[in-house]
Amino acid sequence: MILDKLLSNLSVEVEPFALCRIADGWRLRLPSPPVPMLHFVMEGEGAIGGRTGPPQPVAPSWFAVVPPGGRHSLQSGEPIEHEVQIDPPPDGSPVCQLTGGSGADGNFIVACGLVTVRYGPSFDLFDHLTDVLITDLSRIPQVGTAFDGILAEQAGLDVGSTAVTKALMTQCLVHFFRTIGSSGSLPWLDALDDPRLGRAIDRILEDPSVHHTVESLAEAASMSRSTFAERFTAAFGRPPMALVLQVRMQHAAELLRRAGTLSLDEIAAQCGYSSRSHFSAAFRKHHGAPPAEFRTQTE
User: Which of 180, 202, 219 is the last residue of a domain?
Assistant: First the structure.
């Protein structure tokens, strides 16, 4: 099953978390994150506001994902009489403290952090998210325990903390994807219930060096070309070949970062390009720099 494969091969990167403490009657407005931002309610009750609609109530062990570029807010109690704008996002010491009102009075406590979640180096699992996605994980005590561990690891910075943090966050994310299921919030997740689309996605993700066409992917999905293209675009927010390109370019970036002994010709071949010049042009257009320069910048 393709979802099992995705969840078994998650690539997770976790930035240092902030701990937000918000007193009754206060709102904390947070900046637009450059990558998905996760919120996990550690204590108390409050609400999370997104781009549209009223703030949504949350309670302990509720989990929220904010899409890149999504301004959002955390608030506690009614009426809201005070507001704090946090801009730009904090950096510095791990697990920094952000407060709305007196820190001692902050009875709504939320862990907030930037997290990138991909299938291997390729498919970003929150790519098609348009607004804050919230779900109740209070029936899964392992998630609360894992977040306690994440904050402890980031505060202590012991040897191996990065590896432990990634493992704990991966556990939380698997529970999250299991829980939201076919909710309509992530169309690609709903699409994987259709084994035909699942077969096409599996082909794209399995080997970026394969020469795919819309016709070959439609054949793998046992659909007509037009039906496949329409359903794929509706589910993944882009045409099939656009996802093929994204997977290839992300795979190329990963090879340039980590496989220092591979030549550009070898990397081009592993990403489905028979011509180094065509590969370099596509890479520059996608990443904003030619492959050689990108490799130097990330060394």
Answer: 180
Pairing of strands 46-49, 133-136: unpaired
Q: What is the tens place of the pLDDT at every residue in 92-148?
A: 556 677 888 876 667 899 999 888 887 655 567 787 778 899 999 999 999 999 999
Radius of gyration of the chain (CA): 21
200 and 156 inside one domain? no
Domain that holds residue 233: 194-298
What is the torsional sign of CA 266, 268, 271, 273?
negative
Is residue 200 within 8 Å of 228, Cβ to Cβ?
Answer: yes
pTM for the structure as a whole: 0.72
Two tokens, residue 182: 């076919």
d(CA 166, CA 153): 10
User: Does any domain span residue 167?
Assistant: yes
Return all residues near 80 (Cβ < 8 A) that are at least 6 apart.
Answer: 25, 26, 27
Rounded to 5 degrees, φ, ψ at 20 are: -95, 125
Provide the number of structural domains found in the chain: 2
Write the DSSP symbol of residue 208. Answer: T
Contact, 205 vs 120, CB < 8 A?
Answer: yes
